Amino acid sequence: MLTEIATLGTEPDAISLxxxxxxxxxxxxxxxxxxxxxxxxxxxxxxSISIRGYEIKPNTVVMGxxxxxxHREDTYPDPHLFKPERFLERQFSPYEYLPFGGGSxxxxxxxxxxxxxxxxxxxILSHCQLQLIGKLPIMPVRRGVxxxxxxxxxxxxxxxxx
Length: 162
Ligand code: HEM
Hints:
Layout: H1 2-6, H2 14-18, H3 21-33, E1 43-44, E2 49-51, E3 54-56, E4 61-62, H4 66-69, H5 86-89, H6 110-127, E5 128-132, E6 140-143, E7 146-149, E8 155-160
Antiparallel strand pairs: 1-4, 2-3, 5-8, 6-7
Bound molecules: protoporphyrin IX containing FE.
């Protein structure tokens, strides 16, 4: 990823930065393994529907579980391993990968959030090398309706580039 970021030069523009394949794969895998929103917002069925043998009556509240979808062994072999390469090897459908939900109520901030994530990573990694400190591995915990690192993530600046 560092080699890829180095190709951006000293004043990277947002468009080139957003197109870096490995950076994109790292961000996608991060949101797969620990999706910030574990569940979609609720939906209410207008009519009865059958999903994989489950009959759901009209006026039933249903919520998609993003976390469980992202941890299906058949879609993501070794689902608990962080493997950005998955996103370089194949494309996932909106039914397999949905960190921002789906359909007409999908997150309106998706494009902004994805760009922001990449901008922050490139800004940090172009200027310094970080080293994780504290107890590892850092496990996620539920924080309200979101998932977050237990106790935060502490890192120290190991070296700085000019
Ligand atoms: C990594 C960052 C973010 C993640 C993982 C995320 C995830 C989600 C998810 C899972 C939903 C539910 C979608 C559904 O039920 O289908 C949602 C909805 C929403 N998000 Fe985000 N979001 C993020 C950032 C943002 C940002 C930056 C904004 C605003 C600038 C935003 C605004 C919204 C709004 C307004 C909705 C409700 C959409 C609706 O009900 O029509 N989100 N988000």
